[in-house]
Amino acid sequence: MHKDTTYPLAIRNMPEMVSKKGNKTLSSPKPHNCSFFLAYMTSSNKRLEVQTEDQTPHKWCVSLGEEPFKRFFSQTNPAVHKVFGDGSLFSPLLFGKFFDPSDAFPLWEFESDVLLSHLRSSTQSTVHWCQTGEGYILKAEIPGTGKNNIQVLVDKGKVVEISGPWKQQRDSKAHDWRCGPWWEHGYVRRLEMPEDADWKNIEAYIHNDIYLEIRIPKSQQGRDLPQGKDVA
Prior knowledge:
By secondary structure, this protein is an alpha+beta fold. The chain is built from six helices and nine strands; from the N terminus they run H-E-E-H-H-H-H-E-E-E-E-E-E-E-H.
């Protein structure tokens, strides 16, 4: 059983960051210069296979709440702080208020510099995203403890899911870590894809064994739309 993409209460309680979806403006931000990505386009790139099929039942059925996360994060394990700490793509507090990373978030409806303004001044964030006339881009540092097992999945053509284990299960016959309290074993970030995304041609790369880059091209119809203007 997969989670639906209905916006949880956490988004509706962020009035200063709510996008203009439903109004007469484009729901996604204006295209702008993504030149900061070029610094990571080096020869040491590894292309990841993007999965499109995953029939795992009850995946992400256990939600991460704010109080359980506080108790979990209070432990002194440095791997936990690396994976879920300030500025991490997988932190429930990435967007300034608590948000379960296993719920689908409409990332590209917001400007990264605005949504992450609380982190930019302290240079804590290792996450960037942008929109161009050709598509959508996400770049993020990945946890060193799980970079070799990171998985990128397109869920039903609507959500891009980034996940992986940060701690190995001792029992190889144990149930899938994603079907229980997943944060005790792995990490996830689920992102709602824009309506004009060409999800069948999504690409994912690892740069220098540090950064994950996801490129989602726009459909031809999306490329033909006027950018940054009001639409009827």
